[in-house]
Amino acid sequence: MKLVVQVKLLPTPEQASALEATLRACNTAANEVAATARTARVYRNYALRKHVYAGIKTDHGLGAQAAQHVIKKVCDAYKTLASNLEAGNYGAPESKRYRRVASEPVRFRWQAAQPYDARMLTWQHDAGTVSIWTVTGRMKNVAYTGSPDQLEAIAELPVGESDLIHRDGMWFLYATVDVAEARLVEPQGFLGVDMGIVQIATDSDGRPYAGEQLNRYRRRQIRLRAKLQAKKTESARRLLTKRSRRESRHAANVNHVISKSIVAEAERTSRGIAVEELTGIRTGVRLRKPQRATLHSWSFAQLGEFLTYKARRAGVPLVQVDPRYTSQTCSKCGHRDKRNRPDQATFICRSCGVVAHADVNAAVNIAVRGAAGWGAVNRPYVA
Q1: Which of 17, 75, 128, 367 has its CA 20 to 30 A from that of 35?
Q2: What is the pTM of this model?
């Protein structure tokens, strides 16, 4: 399996200037390629290369590999755009936003990531430096640093493509490494995980993850965003962008902590993990207006991705189950009724009378469905 490892570059001022010139040249070229692709309606890599390859090499001083990566980056951007349009992420086809996005060329900021392959980037692990291509020539002895785990991964695992990124005045390389997958164990039961608004995640053992403390942080961020949005000044917009990045990093860190804890518990108890299908988690629920911002301020899909890859690394089976009615169904007797859940936190079965925390009850139902799904898929074939 492939993982992305982030390392921080420590360039000198002269090296930083060369890196900035390189990103600016690559993304200026990418904008030209995107405009040509939209005008000519050519979005496939090889076909688009015939239109723009020679021109961007000459006009922007790009090497052969850099020019090809720029063209591929544009093609990938249009492919992602088409998927988002098809999924309705830009509204209905007749909406103003949809028509604008579908007709205008994609745009790249000057800081947008630029891919590097082994011909453009080499690692000197003992010295802690990289040799990297720039528009001013090959630049050697660019120092890098990272956590011990990151440095170990870069040094010991096969490194594929890397992305050069400029963020908040700092330079990073996001390197893709190949990690051997652990052999899947035969699960002795399943640990169900219910995802929600008040508790980001609750497992079937009754353990909540990232509760009230995190919600206080989220409510504070919503209030601060509202104040900045109300000002409508240039400085407020800059602060909103900076705060948005900070929130994203905080959310990613929390999702890493939650997913690591869940996988560790499943591995310790020799169980698999059952989670609800995350597709449509936002559109599948009806919420009061105050809850909508809270729901949309959390990346449940990211948490699901982290759970998936951490489980694969640990050899823990993970299954996704249909979450419908798990919050209305009694985990003891199976009776389903809307009235079983009188409020957000409480579950009271109107058939057998069992009382439980609503999220724990839902997690237990998810665990049962996970075990049933795993058994159906892995049932021995009988001729």
Answers
A1: 17
A2: 0.76
